[in-house]
């Protein structure tokens, strides 16, 4: 008789577990997947979609380097020089008319960075300024990257951001 109660208790526990797991599975199936920028995935995605002439000139390492150089520019443009919201922030934000600093792979400002292009917009990041800054950083790092290569990689980055749902229409409009 005791084993009947044990079996009945086990059945109740299994049913409760299945109901809870099923409910959470259904809830998560209906939730939008968060858009997470994965550098390795982005590098592969972008490099595979570059025009053939750009693919012939630059490597996957160059694509990753361009993405990181542009991310540094975005960090500099959005960080608050007074609050220093992020402890890992390396530089104050861009200020209208101040030369854009060019940094090496270690994050140090390279010599002659004061000769970089002027930031005419303050916190607005102009595409030409971003490309000029990446070109200066590439020269300082000894990388052979043409401006059309940078443009192609940044255009590919936009395609990647659309593909992961970080930009564009609503996620449920995508079908």
Sheet with most strands: none
| Strand proportion | under 5%
Low-pLDDT parts are 90-97, 118-123
The helical percent reads 55-70%
* Averaged pLDDT: 77
- What is the CA-based Rg, rounded? 24 Å
Query: How many strand units?
Result: 0
Q: Please give the count of helices.
A: 6
First-to-last CA distance: 56 Å
In short:
The chain has 175 residues and is an all-alpha fold. The chain has helices at 2-30, 39-49, 52-57, 60-78, 127-141, 147-163.
What does this structure look like?
This protein is mainly α and 175 residues long. The chain is built from 6 helices and no strands. Helix 2 crosses helix 6. The N and C termini lie far apart (56 Å). Residues 90-97 and 118-123 have low confidence and may be disordered.
Chart the SSEs and their pairings.
Elements: H1 2-30, H2 39-49, H3 52-57, H4 60-78, H5 127-141, H6 147-163
List keywords for this structure.
mainly alpha; 175 residues; 0% strand
């Amino acid at each position: 008789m005791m084993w009947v109660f044990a079996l009945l208790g086990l059945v109740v526990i299994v049913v409760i577990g299945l109901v809870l797991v099923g409910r959470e599975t259904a809830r998560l199936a209906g939730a939008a997947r968060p858009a997470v920028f994965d550098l390795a995935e982005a590098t592969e995605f972008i490099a595979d979609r570059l025009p053939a002439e750009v693919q012939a000139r630059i490597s996957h390492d160059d694509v990753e380097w361009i993405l990181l150089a542009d991310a540094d520019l975005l960090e500099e443009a959005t960080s608050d020089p007074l609050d220093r919201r992020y402890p890992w922030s390396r530089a104050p934000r861009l200020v209208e008319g101040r030369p854009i600093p060019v940094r090496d792979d270690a994050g140090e400002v390279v010599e002659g960075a004061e000769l970089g292009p002027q930031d005419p917009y303050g916190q607005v990041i102009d595409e030409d300024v971003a490309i000029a800054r990446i070109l200066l950083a590439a020269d300082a790092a000894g990388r052979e990257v043409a401006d059309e290569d940078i443009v192609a990689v940044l255009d590919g980055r936009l395609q990647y951001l659309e593909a992961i749902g970080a930009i564009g229409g609503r996620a449920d409009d995508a079908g």
